[in-house]
């Protein structure tokens, strides 16, 4: 199995053509426009611009499952991302990424790269862990997605290389991205 085995629709409702991403390095991210982590759109876009000519693409997957931070329809989501962060990388239709209704792609991603905890040695990791324990303790259970902007770096064969939790900024992924692009 690989990410290419899971049909998905783009934000405009057409079927995503996975063949155009084969042999590329991908960064799959569940996104939410109104989330405090939405600032990461800028960093994701920068990675996309800096590395797309080397065979890299960011794929954003809008989701409204975490504190209702993606309430808009597809047109509103697309416009917000373009106008506020200059997003030009592909976005999918709004999907669910955790629980029994999680899209099969995200079931595959979280089974392949389960949650390993937040880095409690960082302020962001400690804060996120405390926030979820206090407000949403059920989210911490299991291997699923814990919040918006969980990222999965995918190698050129469509296999998961590494999972990064929301507290990891896009620029922090750059060394791993460069390593995969060089292979």
Automatic annotation (TrEMBL):
| Molecular function via GO | peroxidase activity
This chain belongs to which protein, by name?
Glutathione peroxidase
Entry annotated with the keyword Oxidoreductase:
yes
Q: Which UniProt keywords apply?
A: Oxidoreductase, Peroxidase
Specify the species: Paenibacillus terricola
Q: Does the keyword Oxidoreductase apply?
A: yes
PROSITE patterns the record matches:
GLUTATHIONE_PEROXID_2, GLUTATHIONE_PEROXID_3
Q: Member of which family?
A: Belongs to the glutathione peroxidase family.
